[in-house]
Amino acid sequence: xxxxxxxxxxxxxxxxxxxxxxxxxxxxxxxxxxxxxxxxxxxxxxxxxxxxxxxxxxxxxxxxxxxxxxxxxxxxxxxxxxxxxxxxxxxxxxxxxxxxxxxxxxxxxxxxxxxxxxxxxxxxxxxxxxxxxxxxxxxxxxxxxxxxxxxxxxxxxxxxxxxxxxxxxxxxxxxxxxxxxxxxxxxxxxxxxxxxxxxxxxxxxxxxxxxxxxxxxx
Length: 218
Hints:
Hydrophobic Seed Protein; 2 domains; 5-stranded mixed beta sheet
């Protein structure tokens, strides 16, 4: 699967565009964790992607789609997001990978891999991974206001990876836990179902004083 992803990157680059593996796979690879979920980010526009690859799920309204190339990969076009509410952003395509990474949630999720298999670290992901620490990309409160579900994502990564939360994240959660009231119970429940270390995750939820109703049942 990994080699197939590198071939996709090279295929895109051969057409004069940039492309990287991003998100959870580079993070897990750096930590020595096996992963089978690979996301690709590129400055190639969705319209062109659809002419080159076998697209099996088209979500190009939000700049992403899933392609079939022996395995399934999600390809997303570099973009910046402007949030008008707590879930659906207005997107604008950009040509700079750093701009795209800056819209993401946590620094540990900004590590990239290029077509040669080398890491590209523009925001300090390797340092946070080495120190087993979770920081938001930019101000924590701003990130949580954009999408309050990131509060639970921070707790999930902390409990599943055994990483500490930054003071900025802890303070923002403790002072602004009400933000979760803007999230539907269904979204909260789906996020909680992703927790691998549920015991530690719910202990951290309780420690931070979060009230998430019935969805927090263990």
